[in-house]
């Protein structure tokens, strides 16, 4: 029996219903028992009560604010029946609206005296029979069902399938066909599409351009099913006729469906007209006109479900008061990038189902592959995920696989937890494969690897591209003409033609990056082609003749390269020194321009040459001393022993000064690579959290009028003028507070001690006695020990410019901190924090300034070795370059410089 779990132990990635915030459930549970101290639970109140009307109005108003719905043009209806109910509702309502428009058009055209009612109806019937169409864009299971419902209601002759993704993707969903392939009706009653397909993980990147008015009379009435991605991104409402969505994904609990409908589409013709035309009538509970006239209370609506939705909407408005839904969009995008990034890092293990251009941010669908098998690999993946509290990951029953539903209820921390598990599972699979494979024997310097394995890897990045490049090391194999790019048809015995136009390039060793024979395959970069080639390569076999007593033939293994194996071979064959290997790794990890430049500084080989020069000079100095001691009686020196000794000392001292410079510059280069740590210190409510949010460009810290909101260290990283830096918002320093706040202050002190730059934050406060400066003396004292310090005076907009300058001068005089910077987080968009940003950039430049770009390549490991070398000499050179001097080499120098034994 599984151990019991608490709610916080689980991250639920199920496709729906999604989890609700605990705070919402707690408040709803109280309302369920006793709402507004009435002694009656909310679910027991009448749906026609004043309470119900208020709940509806508040939820509607908040939804309008969040999505920016034009109030004068659209109605927001709360209905029932789910998204599936709307498959029928949209058909009946919008076909009725189309008929009404045609009916009114005929009345405007005809002569009422000459046209009686039967004749008018006959003409309308002809218009309907000849022109009524509804269009469907089919990109997944839900749009397929919607189209099927339309066919059931109207018949196939009136339903136009604009495009079916399966016809463009080998009979499977997973793409959105190009707009120019869509076959749209000229005067359709509606054009339906599903914005996000939960089963297949396909999401429209934005509003389809094919559905924009063309300026020549085509103005489609667009219907969008947004049940699974509403409130996750900005929606151009005015482009739509109808948007509908069930509440259970991003809005609330199951039980209600929200319909946003343009007001001019609500009115319906009489039921008798629809009957005479043979067109379907919707049940009254699905007629938009009826629901709108009754304020969504035509029938018994679940007000409790509307109440929960209202709580969720209010919570979103509180979280994103300025950005509204675009604030949530930034979070949703970031979470999806975390998960997809982890999957894309291991293309040999994870296969994302849809095309990269239409990947859903809400429903991330992928397969897990282990030695060509998905069933066992996915079973193992899901089982281990469940044990870690990552639940609901099983794919839809109709397609299988794995599906992570990344709804708004999933926190960034939850997405990070899943991404970490994806990484760890992949590493565990690789380790398992490695343990079953023959042990890899490294090459010695100057020799080739004993194994004749052919190794390969995808050298271009994951995802769809114009070209994908595979690199393979193939020692001793039959090869094509060297250094000539040739076009070839790439074939596989099982799959047939993999790529009809592949480019093949053979580069013979030793003049290659690894010193070995290299074969490159350049194929078309479609994901299916990439997967097919990756699957075919390990199934190939090569033969090598070996001569013993008799001649035999052995079959060599073709395997995927281990991480870093190409670079390791380049190092072991002498093509790269260790400094270049480290620089290459830093280049791959570089996030900012200056990090890239630091990596380039170490990749040219100049560091290795400098280290070799120092090693040579040390050998020469030692050789002179050895010769002076051992051979002075046999050798006539041009200089006296004292002069020789002084020359050696001068040379070594100069070299040590060079090493000290490299050590110092290496520390600066390391600062660029790992990022500059910035700590914000100050008392509560001076605006530290607001300042951090403005600088990093997102709401990383909670901002509140209540003092002491920040109890722990909140960190966020960003690229500031090319410098990677990590900002830390710390707890406000004050004498009073509970144990939690005291712990937060203790951690703030630690953060200050570890920071490269401390920003002391003070503020201007206007009280009954006039303006004053609020600051904390301890934070000023702590900042004095930091490598760099800046002092800012926030809320400068609270007083005049002259008064702010006077208060800044008083602060400088009191704290002995020169030139406090005047800023205003409230006026951030008008450049209120620009002085701080400029000062930070100048400070970062000073901390990391290096005259010679090559010096940026000195890593922390090299810097520490240089320090040890200055203390005890030659031995550690082996760690700097992967080799060093020995006795034989020393004697070689001696005999080279002196004619001993002549």
From TrEMBL:
GO biological process, one term: L-serine biosynthetic process
Gene Ontology terms: cellular component: cytoplasm
Keywords: Amino-acid biosynthesis, Aminotransferase, GTP-binding, Nucleotide-binding, Pyridoxal phosphate, Serine biosynthesis, Transferase, tRNA processing
Domain G: 677-768
MF terms (GO), sorted A to Z: GTP binding; GTPase activity; O-phospho-L-serine:2-oxoglutarate aminotransferase activity; pyridoxal phosphate binding
Cofactor dependency: pyridoxal 5'-phosphate
Record's catalysed reaction(s): O-phospho-L-serine + 2-oxoglutarate = 3-phosphooxypyruvate + L-glutamate; 4-(phosphooxy)-L-threonine + 2-oxoglutarate = (R)-3-hydroxy-2-oxo-4-phosphooxybutanoate + L-glutamate
Domain GTP-binding protein TrmE N-terminal: 454-575
Signal sequence, renumbered to the chain: none
Domain named MnmE helical: residues: 578-868
Pathway annotation from the record: Amino-acid biosynthesis; L-serine biosynthesis; L-serine from 3-phospho-D-glycerate: step 2/3
Major enzyme class: transferase
EC number: 2.6.1.52
Domain annotation Aminotransferase class V: ranges: 11-97, 125-416
Family: Belongs to the class-V pyridoxal-phosphate-dependent aminotransferase family. SerC subfamily. Belongs to the TRAFAC class TrmE-Era-EngA-EngB-Septin-like GTPase superfamily. TrmE GTPase family.
Official protein name in the record: phosphoserine transaminase
Organism ancestry: Eukaryota, Fungi, Dikarya, Ascomycota, Pezizomycotina
């Amino acid at each position: 029996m599984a151990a019991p779990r608490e709610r916080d132990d689980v991250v639920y990635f199920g496709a729906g219903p999604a989890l609700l915030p605990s705070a919402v459930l707690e408040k709803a549970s109280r309302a369920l028992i006793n709402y507004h101290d009435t002694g009656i639970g909310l679910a027991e109140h009448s749906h026609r009560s004043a309470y119900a009307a208020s709940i509806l109005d508040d939820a509607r108003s908040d939804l309008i604010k969040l999505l920016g719905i034009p109030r004068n043009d659209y109605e927001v209806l709360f209905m029932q029946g789910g998204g599936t109910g709307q498959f029928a509702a949209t058909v009946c309502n919008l076909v009725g609206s189309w008929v009404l428009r045609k009916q009114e058009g005929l009345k405007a055209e005809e002569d009422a005296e000459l046209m009686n009612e039967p004749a008018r109806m006959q003409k309308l019937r002809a218009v309907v029979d000849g022109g009524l169409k509804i269009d469907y864009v089919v990109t997944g299971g839900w749009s397929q069902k919607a189209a099927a419902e339309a066919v059931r209601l109207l018949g196939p002759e009136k339903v136009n399938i604009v495009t079916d993704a399966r016809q463009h993707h080998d009979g499977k969903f997973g793409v959105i066909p190009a707009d120019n392939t869509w076959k749209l009706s000229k005067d359709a009653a509606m054009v339906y599409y599903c914005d996000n397909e939960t089963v297949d993980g396909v999401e429209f990147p934005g509003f389809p351009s094919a559905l924009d008015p063309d300026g020549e009379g085509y103005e489609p009435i667009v219907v969008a099913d947004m049940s699974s991605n509403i409130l996750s991104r900005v929606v151009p409402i005015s482009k739509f006729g109808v948007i509908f969505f069930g509440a259970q994904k991003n809005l609330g609990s199951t039980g209600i469906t929200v319909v946003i409908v343009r007001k001019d589409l609500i009115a319906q013709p009489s039921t008798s007209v629809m009957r005479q035309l043979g067109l379907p009538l919707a049940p009254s509970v699905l007629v938009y006109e009826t629901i709108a006239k009754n304020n969504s209370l035509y029938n018994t609506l679940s007000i409790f479900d509307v109440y929960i939705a209202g709580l969720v909407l209010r919570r979103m408005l509180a979280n994103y008061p300025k950005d509204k839904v675009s604030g949530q969009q930034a979070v949703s995008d970031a979470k999806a990038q975390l998960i997809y990034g982890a999957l894309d890092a291991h293309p040999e293990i994870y296969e994302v189902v849809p095309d990269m251009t239409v990947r859903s941010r809400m429903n991330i669908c992928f397969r897990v592959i282990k030695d060509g098998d998905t069933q066992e690999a996915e079973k193992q993946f899901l089982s281990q995920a469940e044990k870690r509290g990552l639940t609901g990951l099983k794919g839809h029953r109709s397609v299988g696989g794995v599906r992570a539903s990344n709804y708004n209820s999933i926190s960034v921390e939850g997405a990070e937890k899943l991404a970490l598990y994806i990484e760890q599972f992949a590493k565990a699979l690789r380790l398992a494969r490695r343990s079953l494979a023959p042990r890899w024997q490294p090459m010695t310097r100057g020799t080739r690897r004993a194994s004749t394995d052919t190794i390969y890897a995808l050298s271009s990045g994951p995802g769809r591209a114009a070209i994908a490049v595979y690199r393979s090391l193939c020692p001793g194999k039959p090869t094509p003409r060297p250094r000539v790019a040739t076009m070839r048809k790439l074939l596989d015995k099982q799959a047939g033609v993999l790529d009809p136009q592949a480019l093949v390039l053979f580069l013979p060793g030793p003049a290659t990056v690894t010193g070995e024979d290299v074969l490159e395959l350049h194929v078309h970069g479609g994901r299916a082609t990439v997967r097919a080639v990756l699957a075919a390569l390990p199934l190939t076999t090569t033969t090598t003749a070996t001569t013993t007593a008799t001649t035999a033939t052995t079959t060599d293994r073709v395997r995927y390269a281990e991480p870093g194996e190409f670079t390791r071979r380049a190092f072991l064959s002498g093509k790269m020194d260790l400094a270049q290997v480290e620089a290459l790794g830093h280049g791959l990890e570089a996030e900012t321009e200056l990090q890239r430049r630091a990596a380039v500084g170490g990749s040219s080989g100049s560091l290795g040459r400098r280290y070799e020069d120092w090693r040579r000079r040390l050998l020469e100095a030692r050789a002179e001393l050895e010769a002076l001691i051992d051979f002075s009686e046999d050798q006539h020196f041009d200089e006296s022993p004292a002069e020789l000794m002084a020359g050696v000392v001068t040379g070594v001292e100069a070299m040590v000064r060079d090493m000290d410079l490299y050590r110092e510059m290496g520390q600066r280069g390391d600062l660029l690579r790992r990022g500059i740590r910035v700590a914000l210190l100050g008392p509560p409510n001076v605006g530290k959290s607001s300042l951090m949010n403005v600088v990093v460009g997102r709401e990383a810290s909670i901002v509140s009028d209540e003092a002491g909101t920040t109890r722990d260290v909140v960190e966020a990283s960003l690229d500031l003028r090319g410098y990677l830096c990590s900002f830390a918002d710390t707890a406000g320093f004050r004498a009073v507070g509970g144990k939690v706040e005291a712990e937060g202050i203790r951690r703030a002190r630690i953060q200050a001690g570890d920071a490269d730059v401390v920003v002391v934050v003070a503020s201007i406060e206007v009280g009954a006695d006039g303006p004053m400066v609020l600051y904390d003396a301890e934070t000023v004292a702590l900042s004095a020990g930091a490598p760099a310090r800046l002092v800012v005076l926030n809320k400068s907009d609270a007083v005049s410019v002259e008064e702010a300058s006077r208060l800044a001068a008083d602060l400088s005089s009191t704290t002995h901190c020169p030139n406090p910077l005047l800023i205003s987080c409230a006026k951030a968009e008008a450049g209120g924090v620009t002085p701080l940003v400029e000062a930070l950039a100048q400070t970062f430049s000073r901390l990391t300034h290096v005259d010679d770009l090559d010096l940026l390549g000195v890593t922390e490991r090299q810097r520490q070795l240089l320090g040890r070398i200055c203390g005890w000499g030659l031995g550690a050179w082996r760690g700097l370059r992967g080799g060093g001097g020995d006795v034989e080499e020393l004697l070689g120098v001696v005999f080279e410089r002196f004619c001993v034994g002549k």
